[in-house]
Amino acid sequence: MRLFTTVAAIALAAPAFAADPELTVFDWAGFEEPSIFQGYIDKNGDSPTFAFYGDDDEAFQKLASGFKADTAHPCSQMVSKYRDAGLIEPWDESRIPALADLDPKFLDSPIYKDDQGLWYIPTDWGATAVAYSTEKVPVEDVASLDVFLNPKYQGRISLPDSADDTWALAYLATGTTDWTAVTDEQFAAAADWLRQAHQNVAAYWADPAEMAQLMASGAVDVAWSWNDGIVYLREDNYQVGFQRAPKEGSSTFFCGFVNLKDGPGSEDKLYDFINAWLAPEAARGLLDTIGYGHTNLKGMETIADDPAVAEGLSAVDAPILAQTPNDPAQREKQLAEFEKIKAGF
Q1: For 176-201, how does the pLDDT look when each residue is reduced to its tens digit (9 = 90+)?
Q2: Which residues form the signal peptide (predicted)?
Q3: Which domains does the chain carry?
């Protein structure tokens, strides 16, 4: 059963999936699915060695503490932190032909690309929205993000143990849709809302498989979820809805790969890996196994008619908070406040 094997993989010390010893990929559990980078296997005969992490801050701390890998898969708001810490170096654009096919909006920032080079290759994107049991939760209850405060669901909700996603929820719920210029008043309102929501939380999920397991077991009925949690639940025939258009809105994010300095493996194989990821045919594997969209426009064309794209990736008539890079000091403030809230303060 996928829900449990993925959780087990996370619990193991890195590397948790040993294969080709000449390339180590530090990644979110679930992205070791061969269909996402089949071109690499076709050329090299095996998958890379994968080491796994549960959230962006955990990955950064481990790499900053000396863990060695060739590439990592942070989401967009982390890239400036990697650059500031001197952990990454630019990619060689001449070795990545598919860059020309990437949706340009994903590189529209000097944090990702400047006169020093290309620091980040966006590869995948998705949504954070309301997952709910369609058998236990009426659709009208998820028409508002206030479902997370509803006493009817006390002890029946789950939020991510991810400050970025949880603050995105709190900002949306309190009327803020742009976190790049948050005022003290907006921060305070969101923190107050989170403290109220905390009273209803049964568990903070560490990864989508854990969230899916909580719902599948009947422990929770409503969760703030990424697309992949929905995929895992439906693989287990759980009746789940994904509400991306509550009146206050939902969130979007994108992630990609960085070129880690002093990687221990083969530089040639690193470029084989990223080129396999960016191939149009990778879009199908990414959608089917994770539920995410591809940054390659040609890849998205191959899956445009899939119902999963319509449900989880299409435009919605509701506010959207895009999880683009925000002020690093503000993000650290949110991290610290989130830890207090989870501790009951």
Answers
A1: 999 998 999 999 999 999 999 999 99
A2: 1-18
A3: 21-125+253-313 (3.40.190.10), 128-252+317-343 (3.40.190.10)
